[in-house]
Amino acid sequence: MNEISKKDRMKIPRQPMPEQDKLERRTNFSEVNLGFTEELAKMEALRCLQCPKPICIEGCPVEVKISEFIKLVSEGDFLGAAQKIKEDNLLPAICGRVCPQEEQCEVKCVVGKKGEPVAIGRLERFVADFEREHTELRLPELKPKTGKRVAIVGSGPAGLSCAGDLIQMGHEVTVFEALHELGGVLIYGIPEFRLPKEIVKAEINSLRALGVEFVTNAVIGFTDTVDELLANDYDAVFIAVGAGLPYFLNIEGENLNGVYSSNEFLTRVNLMKAYRFPEFDTPVFNCKDKNVAVFGGGNTAMDAVRTSKRLGAKNAYIIYRRSDVEMPARKEEIHHAKEEGIEFILLANPKRFIGDENGWLKGVELVRMELGEPDASGRRKPIPIEGSEYILDIDMAVIAIGNGSNPIIQNTTPDLQFNKWGNISVNEETMETSKKGVFAGGDIVTGGATVILAMGAGRKAAKAINEYLSRS
Amino acid sequence: MYEIIKAEFIAPSVKKFIIKAPKIAQKRKAGQFVIIRINENGERIPLTIADSDKELGTITIIVQGVGKTTNELNQLTTGSYITDVVGPLGKASHIENFGTAVSIGGGVGTAIAFPTAVALKDAGNYTIAIIGGRTKEFVILEDEMKKVCDEVYPTTDDGSYGFKGFVTAKLKELIDSGRKIDFVLAIGPIPMMKAVAETTRPYGIKTVVSLNPIMVDGTGMCGGCRATVDNKTVFVCVDGPEFDAHKVDFATLERRNKTYKEMEETSYHSFQCHIDKAFEEART
Questions:
Q1: Nearest chain A alpha carbon to B2
Q2: Do A307 and A191 belong together in one domain?
Q3: Chain B contacts to A (CB-CB under 8 A)
Q4: Partners of B11 in the β-ladder
Q5: pLDDT value at A36 more than 50
Q6: Using one digit for the tens of pLDDT, what is the confidence trace for A371-405?
Q7: Can you give the pTM of this predicted structure?
Q8: Would A355 be classed as within a structural domain?
């Protein structure tokens, strides 16, 4: 590969992600992105300039050695590349799919200064998939057993990444999950068409093979309290329960039949497989030929609206109070949603839901918004335009405006400090809480954020827990 | 997997299960519930814990076959397994020595009222139970109630057993007889709970009901169980399940519980066909 000059590398265009046909995919839950072929991956890997001091790594919350693994890809050593990634990230098949690379590693990529950045996320995904499909599970080496035990509360991205690191450091790790299935938001939240559940299961199985113990149906706070975990032979506890309390709009009519939180709608479809009702027992609103509105502009909103389309919705709307510039969802998700025929109603805010005589949702009153001065978030504040109200006929609504923190741990752990939003207060360097031996990370600390940030927090906590255990 | 130690019908289509669940048995308090999922394709449904045995590590649930899941559950027998049981969930009943406390159970609601009646007795209340059923065979847990309550009044709609009439008529009779009643707990079908609330409201008797909305996770994550209490939205799974009866918007609860009515019928119908077919095949 040395024969290719920097100039020639720069000439290679960014390789497109093969996708399922946009009309066809509206009718199924199979993954939209099909993944690179070996040829596409090698070609894309050649675009990397192999900077002597790569800055892409600075954009990665878990500091994957990006240029090193890409070099291996360009040489066709895909399994070597997989091992290289796994030195820093045990869950690459997930991260390659759901990380917002365009805001993290790829935004730093030098190639992107003049053209399009190297498709780091797509390469990560390719490498992880290649390894899974072509080899027996290869396990990293474990340090000698320390005899210390760590309890991890929550099996979402923060909990899984923390578990992966701690088990490699030689500690015994038990992960407690409230639901009947492992994976947290990766399972109940992110739909099959964006993150196939088989992939989450495979990544969890690799942790299990390393010796991580998983306990489902364990609601910490109820089944055992944090104090009981500490009293029952756990030397440290990592709380990674996520942001699990949906916000509602608090407007008239929100309790009408047909109004869902995004958590409920997505949990019914993803975790409970309501899209396969009646083969699976859990029902969900029958979207077929109905009008569905999803309120919010984040990735969860995109997931919900695209799910409703797959369930047969005639018109599926995103209703967002700011403009598309401020929309927090990933560009790719917005693009995919538009391709699938989702209608975007921007600069509009719901005032009230309207029901029929039986209490079923039949419409929503919207008010047009305009953007004013930037607010505390740095985004221009949406202001209602008086007299611009109008009614949109809808049969189902999904509220996807974020999540607060679940009160169960707070109510059952009196000496743990929380901030006024119900997030656990931690030392940002060590993820230590106010309670000895208890660490926390992920959405329960930051409020709703991304999978990779939660993973980063999990890894940070693992490092700090390891240090704490070696002291105690 | 959670083993069913014992399963027996105690009334037509009402089955009592004793399930091995040591952690839950240790922890549970009156008023709390579990979420169960029968099998891999099953839905998650909440069921109040009727009783427990810490030594044996078992919990008791009592289930009325209404839709697909409850009927499928009621086909399970001693020695079989339930895939998932999680709990104890929800807030425990608020128990104190009120003075005279009346626990009212309508049909299978008696199973939910029972543990709270026990707790009320333990707290020093003079405890009265009114347990209703459509007919004699639907009056459940009379012996159990008699062991813990100072007075027990069975009622039947048709007069086939005990007091003839609704539980509210018996309650009204007690109030009108001049008895000082300080607290009422009512658990049963929504119309019954609503009727009890209206019976006690004029007298200002503190009245509590246990709500039974549709749930998914049972831990506050989905918000599907939201109800309106005192004109505010609550999540029944984490804020309840017990609430001040005089402040509950029963109409909204009843309406939201019908969200999946048609689908539930579809599901139940295909389940019934499946059973009938299996039965036919077994005969031939």
A1: A217
A2: no
A3: 23-24, 27, 37, 41-44, 68-69, 83-89, 216-217, 219-224, 226-228, 233, 235, 238, 252, 255-256, 258-260, 263-264, 266-267, 270
A4: B14
A5: yes
A6: 998 888 788 889 999 999 999 999 999 999 999 88
A7: 0.92
A8: yes
Residues A27/A52, Cβ–Cβ less than 8 Å: no
Domain extent for A306: 248-401
Could you say which architecture CATH assigns to the domain B2-89? Beta Barrel (2.40)
* CATH code for the part of the protein at B100-256: 3.40.50.80
A395 lies in the same domain as A260: yes
A429 phi, psi to nearest 5 deg: -80, -40
Are residues A217 and B217, on separate chains, in Cβ contact within 8 Å? no
**In Å, how far from its chain's centre is CA B110?**
6
pLDDT of residue A86: 87
Q: Answer whether B263 sits within 8 Å of A408, measured CB to CB.
A: no
The reply to whether A214 touches chain B by the CB within 8 Å rule is no
> b/e string for A82-119 if b means 16 or more Cβ within 10 A?
bebbbebbbbbbbbbbbbbbbebbbebbebeeeeebbb
What does the block give as tokens for A157? 């991205």
Residue where the block lists tokens 């309890």? A151
Same domain, A46 and A119: yes
Tell me the domain boundaries of chain B. Answer: 2-89, 100-256
Beta carbons of A150 and A159 less than 8 angstroms apart: no
Is residue A1's pLDDT more than 60? Answer: no
Last residue in a domain, options A89, A105, A134:
A134
pLDDT in tens, B23-51: 999 999 999 999 999 999 999 999 999 99
Domain boundary among A380, A401, A422: A401
Among A162, A173, A148, which Cα is nearest to A471's? A148
- Residue A467, Cβ neighbours under 10 Å: how many? 11
State how far the Cα of A456 lies from the Cα of A62, in Å rounded to an integer.
Answer: 5
* A259 and A389 part of one domain: yes
A232 touches chain B (CB under 8 A): no
- What CATH number corresponds to the domain at position A237? 3.50.50.60
Whether A205 is in a domain gets the answer yes
Enumerate the H helices of B39-130 as residue ranges: 68-73, 109-122
Domain count across chain A:
3
| pLDDT tens profile A446-472 | 888 888 889 889 989 999 999 999 987
The single residue listed with the structure tokens 């669940």 is B21
Whether A408 sits inside 8 A of B238 (CB atoms) is yes
Q: Report helix angle A157-168 to A451-471, nearest 10.
A: 40
Q: Is A323 exposed, middle or buried (0-12, 13-18, 19+ CB in 10 A)?
A: middle
- Taking CA atoms, A406 is separated from A176, A436, A447, A457, in Å, by 16, 22, 11, 19
Considering only the C-alpha atoms of chain A, give the largest distance between any 2 of them, rounded to a whole number of Å: 74
Chain B CB within 8 Å of residue A356 CB: no
Q: Testing the interface with A: which of B2, B40, B217 to mutate, by most A Cβ within 10 A?
A: B217
Alpha carbon A159 to chain centroid, angstroms: 13
By DSSP bridging, strand A396-399 and strand A259-261 are: parallel
Please report which helix (H) or strand (E) contains residue B126, including its range. strand B126-133
**DSSP code of A55?**
S
